[in-house]
């Protein structure tokens, strides 16, 4: 009896094994038929072939999961499911492990992907493994692996701003590791160093084939180049973009085409010829150059939208140059409060700057003030005193620690100019001082060195300077007047003070001849110059400027040992320096002049 039961049990096990083999064979044939659809993909990508083989083996090893229980099968007849599985009684998670996590989908693209990452955190850039909470416990699986910008841009380009990336050190380190290894790993970042690792999954690294474009300033480029040796090895190409382009016929057409795109995209009313011409002029104004056009298109776009709004409120169908001018005026009105307060101080003569008359050792200089993104020019009185002594020319701004290094250099150039012009046959022995009167802020730059030299020469020659003029321009050791910045703001500032006090027809600005190309003045200033009530004097040397300021010829030596011509300004300066040297020697007989 026992022998029969053992034999029966053995035969039953053999029957079940044969049944399972039959199930595996049948399932294998069904799988081969279903997976035949992916035959082409097998040859294209070995990874897909490996995945399909592993999928088939796993299904065959777990056939019981696809077989409904006998009780369920008897209780409910099999009905085809929407998914084609053939039995709705299968567990819900039977096919879960065979689902596909669509990591990146670029099927809709017609070319290489271009991804602009404007928030380059570590997870946004390198991807991450998300987790879900269930009954207070965190878990994850392959469906919670999320792609980063590097994965979406693979095969194309990823554009990142350096300023945004510098705020995320972990993202920067992750990016460098990925570029160095050529692999993009999806893993948990280490916050502040290595942390306690929790049980997680480890996706296979993805080979990278992309170009990373970093956008930033020259300062950021130099900072990375000099402080991180990996940067120069990985980012070998530098493209330097300009803010302006030449104002040629072809480039004007390109600029107007870009303006047309702005009009279409923002759905603005059409701009007539005068408005388009005003846009081109405004582009040169932004470039501060008559021969160039600014490429700061967002600024032009804001102006166009504001001008279009003004035209619409007036019920006009086209935007004209008058609307652009009104928009510019309204923009200045919103931000020029400090300028108006300063001009009121000039009106009340709380700030002492004369725009008429004459004075010895006094000259009107020009400076630029910045409040946020608004710049405006203001005139300042530069004063100089000269006497007997050995102290040389004293820079009061430097002594008060208000002068910057460039301003100090400009003062040293003044002393060098005196040596070059007047120390050919005698030493220069004098004591003097130069300062910006009523200036209580720091002074930087050398754009006022020309006016400072004019005040010094006036004090030495004891000849007055016409205060109806203001001067800007740097001076070289040879006396050349060099180009400076902020020219248009400076001219507008002095013109505003003169206009509020009443134009006499004599006021004007002396400026470097090299800066003439930078003149982009308001129509009000241009009209005043056209009518002859305001003047612009381009000069190349300090001698030309002094002849305008004093009305005297400057004078030139005909030889090294030849004196300056009598009656000239420099003859008076030379004679005064000679007297000062003799007085200093007589006052201090035991002291040798330096």
Give your account of this protein's structure.
The chain is an alpha/beta fold and 594 residues long. 45% of the residues lie in helices and 15% in strands. The strands form eight sheets. Strands 15-16-14-13-18-21-22 form a seven-stranded mixed beta sheet, with helices on both faces. It has a three-stranded parallel beta sheet with strand order 1-6-9. A hairpin with a 2-residue loop joins β13 (362-371) and β14. α18 crosses α21. The radius of gyration is 41 Å and the shape is elongated. The termini are far apart. Residues 78-86 have low confidence and may be disordered.
Q: Which short descriptors sum up this protein?
A:
single chain; 594 residues; alpha/beta; 7-stranded mixed sheet; 45% helix
Task: Give the helix/strand layout.
Elements: H1 2-35, H2 39-44, H3 46-61, H4 70-75, E1 114-117, H5 122-126, E2 128-129, E3 132-134, E4 137-139, E5 145-146, H6 149-152, E6 157-161, H7 162-166, H8 169-181, E7 183-184, E8 206-207, E9 211-215, H9 218-227, H10 229-234, E10 244-246, H11 249-265, H12 273-287, E11 292-294, H13 297-313, H14 321-335, H15 337-347, E12 358-359, E13 362-371, E14 374-387, E15 392-395, H16 396-399, H17 405-422, E16 431-436, H18 449-461, E17 465-466, E18 469-471, E19 474-475, E20 481-482, H19 487-501, E21 508-512, H20 523-531, E22 535-539, H21 542-550, H22 569-587
Parallel strand pairs: 1-6, 6-9, 13-18, 15-16, 18-21, 21-22
Antiparallel strand pairs: 2-5, 3-4, 7-8, 10-11, 12-17, 13-14, 14-16, 19-20
